[in-house]
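This protein record is not my work; I was only asked to verify it. Where you disagree with what is written, explain briefly why. This is what I was given:
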Amino acid sequence: MSAPTAPRTVPVSAIPTSAPPMRRRALDWRVRFTALSLIWGFSFLLIKVGTDGYAPFQVTFGRLLAGTAVLAVAMAVRRERLPRSGRTWGHLFVAAFFLNALPFSLFAYAELTIPSTLAGICNATSPLWGMALSLIALSEDRPTRRRVAGLGVGFIGVLTVLGAWQGFSGLDVTGTAMALLASLSYPVGWIYVRRTLAGVGSSTLALTGSQLFLGTMQLALVVPLFTSLPGRFPLLPTLAVVALGALGTGLAVLLQYGLVQEVGPTTAQMVTYFIPVIATAAGVTLLGEQLSWNTPVGALVVLAGAALTQSRARGSGRRAPSRRTAQP
C-alpha cells in the first residue's frame, strides 16, 4: 500500500540486485513474502480505521512519521549515509510528493466515502497506468501485443468493478476518482525516479529513508493549514495509524528490500497481485463491507491485465522494466 503501499517508495528496478552476498536470513523468503502481502493488504483496512478518529491529512502524517522512524533506526543500525548532493535531495522531494504524500493522502480521503475493498482494488490498477505512461515517457519501453492487450483487459476489469453498465449507480464518484488518481500517482513517481535518481551513488535504503523524511516534512506543512489539533487520541484509530506507518510503510520497505536482493525483483513484485485479494477479504470479514459479484470478478480481470502488462515476449533479449506498486 506502493505500497500500497501500496503502497509506495522507490521502484524495485532501482534496487541493486548485484549487491554483495547477504548472510543467511532467519526467516525463509516465502514467509517474508507472505508477511509483506498481508501487511500491504491490510493497509487499506488500517486507513479506514484511522480516518474514524483523525482527518485524512493527519492519518497520512502519522503514517509517514512512523515509517520514517522505522527506516531511521534501520539506517542507523546499518550505518547508512544520507545523500550529500543537493540535486539528489531536490529529486527526492519531488519523488516523495508523487510516491508518498499525494497518494497516501488521496487514499485516506477516498476511504471517507468508499469501502476499503474498493480502494484496494483501485490500487491494483497502478501497473496499468504505469504501462500506459511508460509508452509515452520511456522510449526504451516498446509496446508488445501482449502488453497492449493487458492494458485493454485491465481497464475492462476496472469498468466491471465500477459497474459501468449500471451507470455507476451507488458509486461515490469523487472517492473512487481519488483512489484511481492515487494509483496513477505511483507510476508518475516511478518514471521520475528512473529518469533522475538512477546511479546517484546512495543505497536504496538511504534514498527511501530520505524520501519518507521529505514526505513527512511536506505533510507537516499541510496539516496545520487544513486541520486542527485533535481534541483526543482514540485508542483504535491511533493504533491503526501507528501500525500503518511502522508496518505498512517502514517494515514493509525493509521486507521488500530484502526480498529483491534475495529472490530478484520479478518474484518480489508478485506481491502486488495479492494485495487486492487480502484487502477485499479484510474489508468484508472485519469491517462488514458489502461485496457485489462484479467487484471480485472485475478485480480478477484487473489483475490478469496487470500481469499481462508486466510480461514480455518469449525469447526477447531485453528485460521488461520492473515496477513496484506503492503501498499505501
In short: The CA atoms of residues 17 and 264 lie 7 Å apart.
